[in-house]
Amino acid sequence: MEKNKLFNQGRNLIEPEMLPFYEVVELNGGDAMMFQGELTTDFFIVKSGKMQVIESSGGKAVVLDTLGAGDSFGEMSFFDEGGRSATVRSSGKSVLYRLTREHLADMARMQPQLAMEYLITLGKLISGKLRRIDRMIAGVTGDQKVKKDPDLKKLVFNIKRAMKSRKDIF
User: Fold this and answer.
1) Which of 15, 27, 35, 53 could form a disulfide with 94 if both were Cys (CB 3.0 to 4.6 A apart)?
2) Are 45 and 78 in contact (CB under 8 A)?
């Protein structure tokens, strides 16, 4: 769910030679591309339209982000095969590029250098997200409000503990 980073990480992931490896998906308003918890592995780039990233917890749905042209989502499950962390739903007519693992395997067979550059770009995209999260957590932990508020202090402690237990992804 990184904002327009595909074009700043080296290789543009929607260059003409890459387009044959994508499926084009057209959605109407309200259509979901993925559901939170779903075990799918496709990676998506928004070609046009708007997509809402929605997380549900305790019976409440919260819009975490709105994605537009050039934004991407689905890279975590693409690599780790874990459940989707959020539902992603179209907020109007949208067109997406979908990359499956099979398409990436085809790219690797037909154009190995292109596939390598693609994976490096995705790695940079994910690394950028992790660095941003690290900065956010560092900012929160140094905040004076956190030090004075026991509930916020406990929340930060739990986030740090959860991150340490997930060393496999950090």
Assistant:
1) 27
2) no
